Fold:
Amino acid sequence: MTAAPSATYEPMAQAVARHIRDAIFSGGLAPGAPIRQESIANELGVSRIPVREALRHLEAEGLVTIRPHSGARVAVLDFDECVEIYKMRERLEPLAFSESAGRLSAAQLDAVRRQCDKVEASVGDVRAWIEADREFHLACYAGADARRLVGLVTTFWNTTQHYRRALVGTFAPADYELFQCDHRLMVAALAESDGRGGENIVRLHIERARLRLAQHMELFHRRAGGHSSKG
Structure:
């Protein structure tokens, strides 16, 4: 893992956090995988101080767990924890959507449309699709003047990233199309400032994903080293 050059200044701890976050989101670091400070510091050519700071930040994002005397690991969810998060998302994201509808600027709405097209163009590439899907949903909430709400939503997306990626790996072409139909309806609701209608679409969209997860319990028995997520 080598540091990518940046055209603008980025504090070292933020750069380290970005690298670890990208590795988690891409699947390079699986749930339960140890994150060794010395190894990260050597790979990136930095001291351990920004690595420690980065790990604390990632712990606050819900991506990493830090335990005394055992170090940092990628956060792990069991099935019940994941379902709980999805149920909270079913309540909170419709609210974020309705708070955003009617408040998006023309440029923000154009960004939502472009991101929707990007999701559709990524069908068949799990890594690209999961990243584009995440950015689409967060773009839908960009107009919400609700920092804490959007912060919670973002944290929930972070903590379930691995499981969403694994779930998308089970998709057939018809599944992609079903999810994309929802996305198009969300875009239409935002374009019409229809917060109430959009709320229903978002809730059902997330519920569908939760119910599908329940059909793939095997996804929760995979973690680094081949151990069960409950072990």
In short: Residues 79-220 form a domain with the Four Helix Bundle (Hemerythrin (Met), subunit A) fold (CATH 1.20.120.530). The longest strand covers residues 64-67. The two ends are 28 Å apart (CA to CA). The beta strands are 34-35, 64-67, 71-74.
